[in-house]
Amino acid sequence: MGFDCSSIRDDKQSFDISALGSPISVMTSEDHSPSPTKTNTTFTIDICKHLKKAKGIPKEEDCPTGSRVCAIRRLVNTFENSTSFEDAIPIAGQYTLNGGTELDPEITRLKTSSTASDREKEGFRVALHGPKYPDKNGQKQKAVIEFLCLDKAEEKNKKAEKRGLTTRKDEDENGDEEDHSATGEIADDGHGGTLKYLDYSTVGEEKVLSLEWRTKYACEDAAKKGGDDKSSSSGHWGFFTWFIIIIFLGTAAYLIFGTWLNYNRYSARGWDLVPHSETIRDIPYIFKDWMRRVVNTLQGGGSRGGYSAV
Fold this sequence. Notes:
Elements: E1 8-10, E2 13-15, E3 24-31, E4 37-45, E5 67-77, E6 82-93, E7 106-109, H1 116-119, E8 123-133, E9 139-149, H2 152-158, E10 186-188, E11 194-203, E12 206-215, H3 220-266, H4 277-299
Parallel strand pairs: 9-12
Antiparallel strand pairs: 1-2, 3-4, 4-5, 5-6, 7-8, 8-9, 10-11, 11-12
């Protein structure tokens, strides 16, 4: 089953995060002291569609087609100032075309969650599934993204905490990131919010990546206002349309009934069949006379009053 980020719904509450539909990355580092090496793991996610293949990257150094969440591990040697590829882990995606697993999204509205701590939050949680890694006998992969409401006041405070944004476009032909200092465990989503890395560990029989995405698109009142505006405008338009239809049908019924009455009671013919036919025939002359009065009034508006000659 796919995942439509423009129509997320759970417990009668809808969300639209389609504006967030572009690749965004967060990175975590594992130091291997006293060795002068560390492992950088970059987690890249596109919540709305599968990730595009990076140009110039060997197939074995990238996640398979259909991935929505991908982890790339690289070994960084600070002494030799070198970076080498280690691993590419497909965490979540739609791999049914290759006989693999489905994305199988699970959506949970936090306010009505069965967990007490969740009910104190506003937003929703999305769980996306992936294949077993490194092979069929490996560990099942999964990504859990918690979308939390970011109000305007909090949005201003978050600007000081943003530590950079890395997308897959930031990778050069060798697979190295152009600026490692621009990545971190918190990334700017480009829409006033932040994506934060929380954890990547084993939960039961699965290896779960946990992310926290603070965004205004996870606020229920914002989604509700958008929906109310649409329903309100459609409601007004519906009332106006029905009003015009009723007036038209009423006028038509009056003319038809009046014509029938004139024909049967007075044996009228031609124009005389139409109710108030004389008044209708005089409308052009009445309008012409009214226009003449208006013109005369405007032309005589500047005349000065006085006594007429005797």
